[in-house]
Amino acid sequence: MVAELGHFALILALGVALFQTVVPMVGAYRGSPAWMDSARPAAIAQFGLLAISFAALTQAFVTSDFSVRLVYENSHTAKPMLYKITGVWGNHEGSMLLWVLILALFGAAAAVAGGNLPPSLRARVLSVQGAIGVAFLAFIILTSNPFLRFTNPPFDGRDLNPLLQDPGLAFHPPFLYLGYVGLSMSFSFAVAALIEGRVDAAWARWVRPWTLAAWMFLTVGIALGSWWAYYELGWGGFWFWDPVENASFMPWLLAAALLHSAIVVEKRESLKSWTILLAIMAFGFSLIGTFIVRSGVITSVHSFASDPARGVFILAILAFFVGGALTLYAARAGAMTAKGVFQPVSREGALVLNNVLLAVSALVVFVGTMWPLLAELLWDRKLSVGAPFFNKAFTPFMIVLAIVLPLGSILPWKRGQIARAARPLAAALVLALAVATLVFAVSTGRSSIAVIGAGLGAWLIFGAAAELWHRTGSAGLGRLARLPRADWGKAIAHAGVGVTFIGVSLLTAWQVEDIRVARPGESFDIAGYQVTLVDVAEVQGPNYLSTTATMRVRRDGREVAVMHPEKRVYPVQAMPTTEAAIDGGLFRDLYLVIGDAQADGGWAVRAYVKPFAFWIWLGSGLMAVGGLVSLTDRRYRVAAGARSRRLAAVPAE
Amino acid sequence: MKRAGLILALMLSLGSAALAVQPDEVLDDPALESRAREISQKLRCPVCQGENIDESNAPISRDLRLYVRERLVDGDSNDEVIDAVTDRFGEFVLFEPRARGGNLILWLAGPILALIGLIIAWSFLRSRREIAAPVPLSDAERSRLDRLMEDDTRA
């Protein structure tokens, strides 16, 4: 009964979305306020209906209603409650339902918070948002219905893929979707602006927080996924350049470019048509990402749903929205005349360079990801493009970006001089060089990664600090606290990039690994630590069997940690997983893995010392926090009144 | 049928327990071992989804790891080992496609796109500078301005 209610609400939501697409758009065209305003209740109603639908599916999962096929295929009575809930989106159908729920959430948020938008712009934004909803709701109902029932319900389910029964992965998809779908707002604003034929500072002031929020969620989502891979896959890799990772990384890079170019539109009324194009591309790449994951066209560990019919449907959605938006862009972009005038050496110029680097690096990832598919289509060649290629092709862009970032972000608007702008950064440069020298002195290895990465990371961190200090006009700490939140957000996010740089490069260069057979009671040394395998025991978990080892780690005779790496088997899915034991620290992670029993009574054991691993996610966290701090800036909180006044002053075209 | 076999192999290899490189595979010579690891990370497991043979648990990856080590012990260079594996399994196993023929497009995409991007950006930046000269008023604007000035003086 509840499932049918959810099913019914889902279909009603499609009807409401259709209304939301057509009526406000026609209203904006005919200038009818009532028709335009109908977008707001429609957006809220669509969200309400989808919330009911999602709640119904969640209820089916929580109560293990195996008459619903999706629950049977992805759940089990013995599964812990947390994973019964996260199992709702741990499968194709449920994750698409979450996708449209978030889409509708953003639409409703724009409807509620958009009171001071010009009515026609608001109507058009919500109409475009509604159209995206129509496409994906139709996709769900026609190809991926989560509410299908069995006539004869089975007794128990097939359980969720054990890899997904994990807190990191449980919350990875919702954050990614918040990011992907958040970019739909920027897209809707871009298309609405193209239809209106007008882009101004007020428009950018609207688009920027949405983009910033989407980028923040993407950052958290990607970081969670990478953290999960680090502790779950059993060897501590954190990034594999897997097609699906790339699918989330491309929108992230483009969203980063977009939120920077929107600053130029907001402050200097320039780069307008480029910003519109970026907004279209960023969402386009989110759709491409959805296509890659959902179609299984590029094989990847992540595609737990691969079905050609679904792939074709999503490709059609992609072609319609991106193709339509680009056509509109070609027709209308000429109307976006830039106002601001500036010299090449200026903040505007630096932001243009930032955009070139981020957009081109995203395209490089795109070409690399699609290349195997292209080669097969064009020449019938089956080839692979993997981590070694991406490391070589992508890294140079990040190095250039890191070199110019502190300098570019301190340049004044309109016109600047590099020598003069660089003066406040002198101390930062000296400190960064000192860090690079220190790392060089400590490194015994052959790799230059550590020196370059740590030096650049330090340059970014000290550069961000120097810029903050510069903004106070050397007036001391009191002034520092009164700086705009946007300045703080920027410094925190840029320092976060530096912290991640350091983490990635030092972990890659300095990691130590030891693979061996150890008998219970045996000890071995790794990078100054003495590891003892105390014993190995069989333990029964709620829905799995575990082989749990007890390992003692000492350093200089003092005990550092007692760790319990596990190997689990989930009988329902007959699938083994590893649960590495990690003793985390600011400067190093100890990472222990227990493997198979050996014939001589010993156990295969892998031990790693991973220096600065934590910094990768610390940096990602700082980027997200920087975005959040920037979002709370005064001008977004109090801009409401100012915005409507400003809009009234803009003459009609 | 071949495809079904592949999918089966995939399912068997997917997500099985860690410990890709087994203790008995590790070479005694640390220099050779680290070369073996370097090579393993460039070779794709032929039956897995996007895993290299260093990470993979598939039996064929173990065979390949052992083969790579045998060849290294016999004194082959890294490239010779990679070529030998590629001859047998095709270029599919290369995670770093060779920069030859059509693949040149892949390798040159980054530098060429960057160049195009910089040229476009530079011409845009120049155009922004050139507008710096104030545009003279059009006749219509001038007459409107005159009218406004007249209004002002009369008031």
From TrEMBL, chain A:
Residues 89-295 form the Cytochrome c assembly protein domain. Residues 315-634 form the Cytochrome c-type biogenesis protein CcmF C-terminal domain. The chain crosses the membrane at residues 6-29, 41-62, 96-114, 126-148, 175-195, 207-229, 249-265, 274-292, 312-331, 352-374, 394-413, 425-443, 449-470, 491-510, 612-631. It is a multi-pass membrane protein. Keywords: Cell inner membrane, Cell membrane, Cytochrome c-type biogenesis, Lyase, Membrane, Transmembrane, Transmembrane helix. It comes from the Bacteria. One of its GO terms (molecular function) is lyase activity. Its main location: membrane. It is found in: Cell inner membrane. Required for the biogenesis of c-type cytochromes. Possible subunit of a heme lyase. Belongs to the CcmF/CycK/Ccl1/NrfE/CcsA family. This is Heme lyase CcmF/NrfE family subunit.
From TrEMBL, chain B:
The keyword Cell inner membrane does not apply. The lineage of its organism: Bacteria, Pseudomonadati, Pseudomonadota, Alphaproteobacteria, Rhodobacterales. Keywords: Cytochrome c-type biogenesis, Heme, Iron, Membrane, Metal-binding, Signal, Transmembrane, Transmembrane helix. This is Cytochrome c-type biogenesis protein. The chain crosses the membrane at residues 104-125. Possible subunit of a heme lyase. Residues 1-20 form the signal peptide. Residues 9-149 form the CcmH/CycL/Ccl2/NrfF N-terminal domain. InterPro entries: C-type_cytochrome_biogenesis, CcmH/CycL/Ccl2/NrfF_N, CcmH/CycL/NrfF/Ccl2_sf. Belongs to the CcmH/CycL/Ccl2/NrfF family.
